[in-house]
């Protein structure tokens, strides 16, 4: 607006004049009116400014002289002048006027004062441009106002708040990074004087300060934030009450309209707390109130705020305000998921910045580590691992234990985070040793725990363990010597279960390499074998993540291999036994490069191929690595290694090193073929440690196939040592020496003869302690070379083993009251006889394809030993020892038998009928063994079902593969159980029912292809047949039908789906059941209704495996089967034991002797190969007279009902499946013997 064009009254221009009617101007300054030009006005005003600038408050005459001029300069003409230079000069004059005339301003009108200060405030905007020629004048204006505190005059005005708000906004808007500290200081002086000397701070004025703390404004102008921050610190005592009132209005009273900043209260509280906690002394109790709000989003906002306040580095809020801290901790258990999640995220910063609060957080993190929400459990792990990576001292063992527990979480994302976090901690503190030995010791358990996870069934878990091993436990990118040193001492420090897991990992990788090698061999064939190739592709896909999707990718990869010969050659090199680690790395990168698609950033196909390549690539072991391992072991033998510094004793390092080499000799035999390696192994053979020598022989056996042709010097040195070990070494060394000679030498017949002849001539039963090693050697020689030593071995067996050793007792055995005794407590004669029996078995195994009559006679001898409990002479002197080895009421034998049975079944080496034996495990009195047997059963069933799915040709052999076909074998076995003597005895029927349910529960977990109806149909069809082994014995058939009725009773009670139509008519094994007769209908019920009700709803005997371990089936109509506790059964002695007191103290057999004979002839005596012999013997046993069977049963089987433990608690070390709390992974703990789980 052009003010000069407007007519002005004279008084407006002249202001207040002197007595003579004129305004007094400084010397040399002419009158300033609107008649002059702007430039001339500026020139005259500058002189006026100079005059006022030089005046001080004591110049009374000048003050009176220039009072009209002061009033003139406050006229509208100057205050509204369009020229900014004019306005600036006038503002400087007015500022000096306030300074000169203080404390009484020459302006008495409130409106005039308001106009003047608003005018001056507007001029302060010129401070923004520090490069302006007039900036010094603007700075002078600011300095003058701050020094004199001119704005304090406005306190007398009614609407002074408008002036102050305008001033504050102006100063906050113009401050920038080009201003020096003096500018900021004068601004602070000016604003702080207004705050501290006024009667209070209005909400609008407070808003003008606080708005600069909001993150959006803070990011736009950092200097205004700093200015507000310093201003608040300086005025904390005055402004704290105003701030408290603001937050009280918004937080407590909910009056958000009091300020435009109401929606930013939590941001403001955070910034104010960071500036000075004293600003919020009255606000914190209000936050405790908001933490208990019914609005989840509001609680979330408060939690986010307090998380920042408590977690900030220099904050002592938790110690200064304990009630608020405890209230905040309560939000870890908030019902609102985002609130719990935010609380967990806060814990990481708190642990890092306030280690003293870890104790308070531990219990809450423990609860949240079991949270039902996956994201919360995941963040608990991230919180703990993040703090631990910053400093291991920040987290206690309990917090690390939470992460350890989450490695078994039911969700893959949580398990992966826990495993990777632990792996990173191990690498940082154990491998790199960043925090010293104490920290390394604190996390030394991680390596074992991570390897234990390889026991899980999930392929994702296995692959992640392999990745962790290659990147964190033994980083593959290390130099060979460093990498092997890491592996050497890692293997020596692992616990037994972790060692087995690591061995299994190498075994699985080697097996996958073999599958890929076989696939490449199929590509080399002139004509494609589609079925064989398809089966191989399915096998490979099962070893990759998400086997369903992996099948398609593997097929695509196979097609690429068929089209690209160069790719095939790269893959062949990768899986070649001679491939080095460096070559493997190059091959992997080259194959990945060929399969990469630049146009496709995310390539699932390439990722899947990388998974396959990482599993089969030899990234750790090659010839150079084996040589480095051998050198490390040599240093341990010489005593120059760093064993003690690594926390391993030299003996442990040597023994573990050889065990490591022995395992690697199976998976990487070619890498051992060097004179240097074999020289070191020969040195181990000469050591006094029997285990070391035994392992060295095994390594020679596995890797020495080319020694005879390539290393004659090693051969000439090795042969005498092997002969010596076979003749005078330990039994284990003798066994390995014989097998080593047979495996690596072409003239093995000559070598074995040189051992056999002197040993056979030197056998002397009068010195039994010198018989054990010769018997072991002779037994293995007869098994490996049966044709060569058939005649002399027959003579040794007949004349020495049987007549001289087994039939004669040279010492008197003493009973020690133990069920099982270690070898050290057994006499040499008994040990010799045990080895003699093993020799007979090995001799039989060697003759498995020989039609000699010696086999039958030897079988009869072994059977007689079982029946007589090892006492062939009936003198009852060695029964305590030989008998206890084979009697099935011994815990060790049960475990061994279960292992052998499981191992053969899981490899499909035994027919399906042998799986029925697992039903008898329900009688085992030890809960852990029952649970273990169930695990084995689950494994076997899952493998068979998977095999049927993966092999289309298997549908033709369902009778021998389909798990449901075990039902007729199980029914037949239980019908022939010698413990089952009376078909109407409730206790015996209860045992039959428990055995049936032990098997049926696993089979009925899923109703695949209407399997419930199929099993019911099988049981019904059996009732239409007769026992093929005793078709004319009515009592035997009645027991068979009774077992069928019990099975039908169980199936009907547990499944409502069994009444549907069977998908197909089941086929019954002809060996056990006759063909159904025409017009034969067996609708009779062989168990009474009362018995049926008692079996289903009565008080059965307790058994942990059916109660605590097994999950109840959830199909509609199933009734839970509840076992009674030991107290409910009252006694573990049944009616029969009461009638026969003399047998009351004898325990019930797990299997009766006769049933055990039929089983152990195959597994424990003859082996897995004599099917025809076993079946012959089975027919012979089951056709014995019923009276003899009942007599033996009465004496050894029915003396008392088996005592079962109540289903309370569980053993954490046992491999049974126990439901976790919410959020926990329902999985098996590392098994007591991993060999039973991993195959």
From TrEMBL:
It is found in: Nucleus. SUPFAM superfamilies: ARM repeat (SSF48371). Residues 1190-1239 are annotated as: Disordered. One of its GO terms (biological process) is mitotic sister chromatid cohesion. InterPro entries: ARM-like, ARM-type_fold, Pds5. Gene3D superfamilies: Leucine-rich Repeat Variant (1.25.10.10). Keywords: Cell cycle, Cell division, Membrane, Mitosis, Nucleus, Repeat, Transmembrane, Transmembrane helix. GO terms for cellular component: chromatin; nucleus. Belongs to the PDS5 family. This is PDS5 cohesin associated factor A. It comes from Canis lupus dingo (dingo). The gene is PDS5A.
């Amino acid at each position: 607006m052009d003010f000069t064009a407007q007519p002005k009254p004279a008084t407006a221009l002249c202001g207040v004049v002197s007595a003579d009617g004129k305004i007094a101007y400084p010397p040399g300054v002419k009158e300033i009116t609107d008649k002059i030009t702007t430039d001339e006005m500026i020139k005259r005003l500058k002189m006026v400014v100079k005059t006022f600038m030089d005046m001080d408050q004591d110049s009374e005459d000048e003050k009176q002289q220039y009072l009209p001029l002061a009033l003139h300069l406050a006229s509208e003409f100057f205050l509204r002048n369009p020229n900014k230079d004019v306005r600036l000069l006038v503002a400087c004059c007015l500022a000096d006027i306030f300074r000169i005339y203080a404390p009484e301003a020459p302006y008495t009108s409130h409106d005039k004062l308001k106009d003047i200060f608003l005018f001056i405030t507007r001029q302060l905007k010129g401070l923004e441009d520090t490069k302006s020629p007039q900036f010094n004048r603007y700075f002078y204006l600011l300095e003058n106002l701050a020094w004199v505190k001119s704005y304090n005059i406005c306190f007398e005005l009614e609407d002074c708040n408008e002036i102050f708000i305008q001033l504050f906004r102006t100063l906050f808007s113009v401050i920038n990074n080009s201003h020096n500290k003096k500018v900021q200081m004068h601004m602070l002086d000016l604003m702080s004087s207004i705050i501290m000397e006024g009667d209070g701070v209005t909400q609008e004025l407070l808003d003008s300060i606080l708005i600069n703390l909001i993150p959006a404004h803070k990011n736009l102008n950092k200097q205004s934030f700093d200015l507000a921050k310093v201003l608040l610190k300086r005025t904390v005592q005055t402004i704290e009450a105003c701030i408290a009132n603001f937050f009280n209005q918004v937080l407590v009273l909910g009056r958000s309209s009091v300020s435009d900043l109401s929606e930013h209260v939590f941001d403001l509280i955070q910034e104010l707390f960071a500036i000075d906690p004293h600003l919020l002394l009255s606000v914190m109790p209000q936050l405790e109130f908001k933490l208990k709000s019914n609005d989840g989003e509001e609680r979330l906002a408060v939690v986010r705020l307090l998380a920042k306040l408590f977690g900030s580095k220099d904050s002592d809020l938790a110690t200064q305000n304990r009630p608020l801290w405890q209230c905040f901790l309560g939000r870890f258990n908030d019902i609102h998921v985002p609130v719990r999640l935010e609380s967990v995220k806060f814990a990481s910063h708190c642990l890092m910045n306030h280690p003293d609060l870890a104790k308070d957080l531990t219990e809450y993190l423990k609860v949240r580590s079991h949270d039902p929400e996956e994201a919360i459990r995941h963040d608990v792990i991230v919180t703990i691992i993040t703090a631990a990576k910053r400093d291991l001292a920040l987290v206690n063992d309990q917090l690390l234990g939470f992460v350890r527990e989450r490695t078994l979480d039911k969700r893959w994302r949580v398990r992966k985070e826990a495993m990777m976090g632990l792996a990173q901690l191990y690498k940082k503190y154990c491998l790199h040793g960043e925090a010293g030995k104490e920290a390394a010791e604190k996390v030394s358990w991680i390596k074992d725990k991570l390897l234990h996870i390889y026991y899980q069934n999930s392929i994702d878990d296995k692959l992640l363990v392999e990745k962790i091993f290659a990147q964190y436990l033994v980083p593959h990118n290390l130099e060979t010597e460093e990498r092997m040193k890491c592996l050497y001492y890692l293997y020596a420090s692992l616990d037994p279960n972790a060692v087995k897991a690591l061995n299994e990992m190498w075994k699985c990788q080697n097996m996958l390499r073999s599958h890929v090698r076989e696939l490449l061999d199929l590509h080399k064939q002139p004509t494609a074998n589609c079925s064989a190739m398809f089966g191989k592709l399915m096998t490979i896909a099962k070893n990759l993540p998400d086997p369903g999707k992996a099948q398609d990718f593997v097929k695509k990869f196979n097609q690429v291999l068929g089209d690209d010969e160069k790719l095939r050659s790269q893959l062949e090199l990768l899986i070649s036994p001679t491939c080095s680690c460096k070559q493997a790395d190059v091959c992997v990168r080259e194959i990945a490069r060929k399969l990469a698609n630049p146009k496709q950033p995310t390539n699932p196909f390439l990722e899947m191929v990388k998974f396959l390549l990482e599993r089969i690539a030899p990234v750790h072991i090659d010839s150079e690595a084996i040589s480095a391992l051998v050198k490390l072991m040599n240093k341990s033998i010489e005593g120059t290694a760093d064993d003690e510094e690594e926390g391993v004793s030299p003996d442990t390092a040597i023994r573990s090193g050889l065990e490591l080499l022995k395992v690697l000799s199976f998976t990487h035999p070619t890498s051992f073929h060097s004179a240097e390696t074999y020289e070191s192994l020969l040195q181990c053979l000469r050591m006094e440690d029997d285990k070391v020598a035994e392992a060295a022989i095994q390594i020679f056996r596995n890797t020495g196939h080319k020694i005879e042709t390539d290393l004659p010097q090693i051969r000439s040195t090795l042969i005498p040592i092997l002969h010596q070990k076979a003749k005078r070494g330990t039994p284990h060394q003798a066994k390995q020496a014989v097998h080593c000679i047979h495996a690596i030498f072409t003239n093995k017949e000559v070598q074995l003869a040189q051992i056999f002849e002197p040993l056979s001539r030197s056998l002397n039963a009068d010195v039994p302690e010198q018989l054990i090693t010769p018997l072991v050697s002779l037994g293995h020689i007869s098994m490996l070379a049966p044709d060569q030593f058939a005649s002399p071995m027959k003579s040794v067996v007949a004349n020495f083993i049987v007549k001289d050793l087994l039939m004669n007792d040279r010492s008197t055995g003493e009973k020690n009251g133990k069920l099982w005794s270690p070898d050290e407590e057994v006499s040499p004669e008994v040990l010799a006889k045990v080895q003699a029996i093993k020799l007979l078995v090995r001799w039989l195994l060697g003759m498995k394809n020989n039609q000699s009559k010696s086999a039958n006679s030897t079988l009869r001898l072994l059977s007689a030993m079982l029946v007589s409990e090892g006492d062939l002479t009936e003198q009852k002197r060695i029964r305590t020892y030989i008998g206890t080895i084979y009697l099935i009421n011994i815990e060790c034998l049960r475990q061994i038998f279960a292992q052998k049975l499981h191992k053969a079944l899981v490899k499909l080496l035994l027919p399906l009928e042998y799986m029925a034996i697992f039903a008898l495990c329900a009688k085992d009195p030890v809960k852990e063994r029952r649970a273990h047997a169930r695990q084995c059963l689950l494994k076997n069933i899952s493998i068979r079902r998977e095999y049927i799915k993966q092999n289309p040709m298997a549908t033709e052999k369902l009778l021998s593969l389909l798990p449901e076909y075990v039902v007729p074998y199980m029914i037949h076995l239980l019908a022939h159980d010698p413990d089952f003597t009376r078909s109407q005895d409730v206790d015996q029927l209860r045992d039959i029912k428990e055995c049936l349910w032990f098997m049926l529960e696993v089979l009925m977990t899923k109703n695949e292809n209407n399997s419930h109806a199929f099993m019911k149909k099988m049981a019904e069809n059996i009732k239409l047949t007769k026992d093929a082994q005793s078709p004319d014995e009515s009592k035997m058939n009645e027991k068979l039908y009774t077992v069928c009725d019990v099975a039908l009773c169980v199936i009907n009670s547990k499944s409502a789906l069994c009444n549907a139509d069977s998908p197909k008519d089941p086929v019954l094994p002809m060996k056990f059941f006759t063909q159904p007769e025409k017009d034969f209908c067996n609708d009779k019920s062989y168990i009474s209704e009362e018995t049926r009700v008692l079996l289903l709803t009565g008080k059965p005997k307790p058994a942990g495996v059916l109660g605590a371990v097994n999950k109840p089936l959830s199909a509609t109509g199933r009734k839970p089967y509840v076992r009674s506790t030991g107290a409910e059964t009252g006694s573990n002695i049944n009616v029969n034991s009461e009638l026969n007191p003399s047998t009351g103290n004898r325990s019930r057999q797990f299997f009766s002797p006769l049933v055990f004979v039929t089983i152990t002839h195959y597994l424990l005596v003859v082996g897995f190969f004599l099917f025809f012999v076993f079946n012959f013997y089975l027919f012979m046993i089951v056709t014995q007279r019923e009276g003899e069977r009942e007599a033996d049963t009465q004496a050894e089987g029915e003396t008392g009902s088996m005592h079962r433990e109540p289903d309370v608690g569980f053993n954490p070390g046992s491999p049974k499946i126990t439901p976790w709390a919410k959020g926990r992974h329902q999985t098996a703990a590392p098994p007591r013997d991993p060999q039973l789980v991993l195959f």
